[in-house]
Specification:
Blueprint lengths: L1 H23 L5 H12 L6 H15 L3 H14 L4 H13 L3 H17 L3 H6 L1 H7 L1 H15 L3 E4 L5 E4 L4 H4 L1
């Protein structure tokens, strides 16, 4: 009996030591993950040219060339219309350059794409900024959220049954 416990303890200690060693040498894993990432970026839908365009848009904004940044984001979005992140980044550029109505529209587009992807928390996080700029767009988005998320507030109705009413408007919520 003692030999089984000792044997089990030795093997457990060995596994722990090997695991710690591998964790400390995690650079062994990084080249493999980097090559997988680069292969994913070079897929037909998201080729190197598209990634370059997105990086160029980010770089142009970082250098203060706002109009070029907007142009590059729009070009990227033309070929990648389902990329919510690109719309969000474009909205950030618009917002930071004082183009609030355009920012609200870009954030709204991003939120709609996020709803399509069932990323409800991310979509609702954009509601506050949209509501500050364009409450009508925020209300439109709010009307879409209850259908997708079941965000109906039960209220009593005649006969004691519960009726479903939409949640609070974005105009008064934010």
């Amino acid at each position: 009996m003692l030999s089984k416990v000792a044997n089990w303890t030795i093997w457990s200690a060995f596994i722990v030591v090997v695991t710690i060693f591998i964790y400390q040498q995690k650079d062994w894993v990084r080249p493999a993950t980097a090559s997988v990432k680069s292969m994913a970026l070079q897929s037909p839908d998201n080729g190197p040219a598209a990634e370059d365009k997105l990086n160029s848009a980010r770089g142009a904004f970082a250098l203060g060339d706002d109009s070029r940044s907007v142009m590059l984001y729009k070009e990227y979005i033309k070929s990648h219309a389902k990329q919510a992140d690109a719309y969000g980044e474009l909205g950030n550029v618009y917002y930071l350059t004082g183009q609030r109505p355009e920012a609200a529209q870009a954030f709204y587009e991003a939120a709609n794409l996020l709803l399509d992807e069932h990323k409800f928390a991310e979509a609702t996080s954009l509601l506050q900024i949209i509501a500050q700029i364009n409450p009508m767009l925020a209300d439109e988005l709010t009307r879409k959220l209850p259908k997708q998320m079941g965000m109906y507030a039960p209220t009593p109705s005649v006969g004691g049954a519960l009726a479903q009413t939409p949640s609070q408007s974005a105009l008064t919520f934010y």
